[in-house]
Each structure stands twice: as C-alpha cells, then as structure tokens.
Amino acid sequence: MKYPNAYIGKWHQMALRTGLILRRNLLTATVVMFVAGTGAFLILQDSLQVTNSYPRIAHAGGQVGSATYTNSIEALDQSYSAGFRMFEIDFSWTSDQQLVCLHDWEDSFERSFGLQTRGAVTLRQFEELVRQRSLYNKCTLVSFMDWFAAHPDTTLVTDIKDKNLDALSLISGSYPQYVSRIIPQVYQPEEAAFVKSLGFQNIIWTLYRYPGNNAAVLDMVRSMGVYAVTMDTVRAARGLPLDLDAMGVATYVHTINDYADTLYYKSRGVNEIYTDSLSPAREQALLEAGEVFLTDSELFKQDQLKQLEFTRRLEIFAEKTTVHYSLDKDFILDSIFTNQVTMNDFQSGILQITATGNDPYLSFPRLSNPQLALELHIQIQTPAYTWLQVFYTTQQQASFTEELKVDAELMRGSNEIVLSIHDESPITRLRLDPGTLPGEYAIQSFEIRSD
Known about the structure:
The chain is α/β, with parallel strands linked by helices. It is built from 14 helices and 22 strands.
C-alpha cells in the first residue's frame, strides 16, 4: 500500500528508512522494521545466527504430560531432559512454617489434590496428600534440594508470594552451599538490598505485583543491580524491554507457550521467556529447519493489521482538503492556554515542552469554522509509556468533559497517530493532553483537518 509521502511525518519516514531492530541475543535474528507509534513490524529477511546469553526458564518446573503448575519432581526431570537448566519453582508456607512447592492454597491446592482447604496444612499433611491424592510427586523444600544437589548444572528461580524475605532467609541459612545457584525473585525494589545481604549474587525483579508504571520501573531499576527484570505480556508490548535493554538490563516475559510468539517478544526487545513447555533445543531445531517464523505469530499478525489500519487512516487524513490548524504554520504562544506545562522552545515547527505534573495540557484557539467531523494528525515524542488525550467542546457543550474526548496509547520515544472526532454538534475547540507523566515532550506535528 502506497503511503501519502507528503503527509507522512519525518519521524515516520525515519522509522521506515532506518528502524531496524536487531536483538543481539536472538537464536535466529529476524531483521524487522518497526514503524514508529504503531506497534507494527515489516519483515525484511530471516538471517544471522546469534548466540543467546540468557537461559530459558521452566515455569513451575515445566509441563509434565498435559499438566502445568505441578512443581513436581516429574516436571523437573522432564524439563531437564528437554534441555532446561533454569527452573522457576513456587514455594508456599505450611501451617507449621515449612516450605513446600505449591503455587497457592486455593486454586492450585484444589487442582493438585481434588480438595479444598480453608488454609495451609502442615508439612506432614501435605506429604500425605502428595502420596495419596496427587498424580505427581510435588516437592517440598527438602525434596527439591535433594534433586537440586543431584543436578549441579541447574539454577533455581524462586517464586514466593507470602513472606518472601522470611523464606529466602530460611533457604540461605539452611542451604548456604547452594546460594550461588539460586536467583530469588523480588516483588518490590526495597526487597533487593536485604536479599543481597543474604548472600544471593543475582536477583530477578518480577513486576506482576509492582504498582508503578514503566517510567517508575526505569527509575528504580538503576540502583537495584538485578540479573533481569521479568514482566507480563502487557508490559512487554508497551516498549519496556527495549527501554531496559538500552540501560543494559536483561528482560524475561511470562508465560509463553508458542515458538512464534517467542520470536515476536524477542523482536520487541525481550531476552528470554518463562515457559511451560518450549524447549530451547526444539526451538533451535525448528529454526534451523525453517519451520517456525516470526510471521507465524498471531501477535505479529495483529500488529500487521494495526499497521494496515494506520496506513488507511493516514491516507484518509491526507485526503482532507481543509486545514483548520497546523502547529508549524499557526502556532502563536499567546493563543494557547496551558496547565502544568513549561514552553521550552519552538523551532522548525517542533514545540518542546516540559510537563511539570500529571495533568499537562495545551488548549488551542477556537476553530473559526466549527465542524461535525475532524481528523487529527499528531507526531509526538514522549518520555515514557503513557496515554495521549484530545478533549473537545461543541456548540452544545462549551466546557471540556470526560465524555467528549478521544485518546491513544503512546510508547516511549517517537509516536505518530491519526485520530478522528465526530459529534452531532459542531466541534469548536480542542485541548491536547500529551501524556499523564511529568517529563520532556516534543510535539512535531499537530494538524486539524476536515473535508
């Protein structure tokens, strides 16, 4: 599909010309083109063998048969045979303060034993349940460490949701000889220093309990000295892995069970994955045989559809003939009302601003010719993942309200978007809220058009 070049902004053109993302850790590096602000990729070629420096992690010990979350000796053995050497294990406290390999005492307990419990049971009761009611030999801390000792080339990644620091203190005190082979997961930044004081050389910061946004993650991780940061697929899709990679911080995403999706997340900057079943050796064989590609990923296909939709929207904007406002031609400082915004510079049609709070906005002059439908083309550079909003007023509603707005998801860095506004009453004014975070923003284009 041909782009309307006269209206594709310079940031979009630069992405098309030079936006290659080539991850140094890919098993087979697919050279892809990332289109700024759209979350989409265009394939150029599949080539270049590269060494992966981060091991894949078997989630909850890995899958055994069709079962996941077993945290069992059978799962460990099967995953080890498949080539895994790093294992995430869930630990929970029994009622007599011992650690057993169980995700939780609610759903996981019922799934494992076919029973419900009102709370934790004793270690002895747990072991009896494993013998009598479990298909698999679920570990205790003691039995896991026996297996760990017999497999000296393995690494343990802990997942301890309750009293994590107490559990890690118990493990380091009871098994000091294995501390160098254990990578604890921490859930909040303030846990890192204490965990390191226990002698653990590496830690993983897992984000599923951390309430802060991506900007806060980037700020906090600087002083934590982590082995890696683990995140869910939502954060991974919002640009955090590439931002962390720029800081030299490795990333994992959980839980991925499709080989093509693994390639997709690696193309988004992720180093490796937590998985139930995706053997690294099997993946390498599939790649070498040409049987798995990034383009097989449903996530990739969704991105391609988004790219096609963005191209269509850009073409629609280019076809609009009436320009109501253009930043590079119509900007007059005194005509814009701002909130929590410091105007820094305006050169070559680019407005540099500093947002001093969480509710920055720029309210533009009243439109001289109100319309029922408007198309907006916006190019903006943002300090972190955030949301842009455009509020509008009409002849019937003279004040800005939450009901009259459109919004768009923005990644850290350069973004290009096209928004449509329609209303039954003519639209009279627009207000641009560039993000919800303090920091430096650069608005390269803000243009309003209609038929």
